[in-house]
Amino acid sequence: MSDYSERLKDPRWQKKRLEIMQRDNFTCQQCYDKKSTLCVHHKHYLKGKELWEYPNRLLITLCESCHEVETANQTELDENILDELHTLFLSESIHELLMGLYNLEAVDGYTVTAEVLGWAMQTPEIMKELNDKYFEYLRVKEGARTNAE
């Protein structure tokens, strides 16, 4: 099956989709909505992998609204991250970094996130900006969770 919409109907994807929704307690992991139609979102796509072959850490349950926003923002964010990496590294170093991250499937995402953040916050200016953005994100997320309850 080469057509994406056909692959979404594949029983192997349907089984994986249900597994992720159960793991996430049939709740949008962005806004905590339990009533809207839910989707399972691929955080990013891997070359040569079928939809159902992804590690669970790359899949997340989102409501339709959050899924639309995430999908719309994903391309721009990917481009911005790549642009920023190019200001710091040559392409060969970026490739080595990516290969290292792809090979970390056995490592939990929190460990990888902590390592990457530690690397990114080498200057006080970056640390302050990331810290401010993170706490703003938590305030917005907490407000959404409180409103959903």
Can you offer a commentary on this structure?
- With 149 residues, the chain is mainly α.
- Helix content is 62%, strand content 7%.
- It has a two-stranded antiparallel sheet.
- The radius of gyration is 17 Å and the shape is globular.
- It starts with a helix and ends with a helix.
- The model has no long low-confidence stretch (mean pLDDT 79).
Write a concise keyword list for the protein shown above.
single chain; mainly alpha; two-stranded antiparallel ribbon; 2 strands; 6 helices; 149 residues
Brief rundown of the structure:
This protein has helices spanning 4-8, 11-23, 64-88, 91-102, 109-120, 124-148, and strands at 38-42, 59-63. The chain is mainly alpha-helical. The longest helix is centred in the middle third of the chain and has 25 residues, at 64-88.
List the SSEs and their pairings:
Layout: H1 4-8, H2 11-23, E1 38-42, E2 59-63, H3 64-88, H4 91-102, H5 109-120, H6 124-148
Antiparallel strand pairs: 1-2
**What do the pLDDT scores average to?**
79
Question: What is the approximate shape?
Answer: globular
N-end to C-end Cα span: 41 Å
| Category by helix and strand content | mainly alpha
Order of the strands making up the biggest sheet: 1-2
What string, H for helix and E for strand, traces the elements in order? HHEEHHHH
Helix content: 55-70%
**If you compute it from the alpha carbons, what radius of gyration comes out, rounded to the nearest whole angstrom?**
17 Å
**Residue windows where pLDDT falls under 50 for at least 5 positions:** none
- The count of β-strands is 2
Count of helix runs: 6
- In percent, how much strand structure appears in the residues? 5-15%
Largest sheet: 2 strands, antiparallel
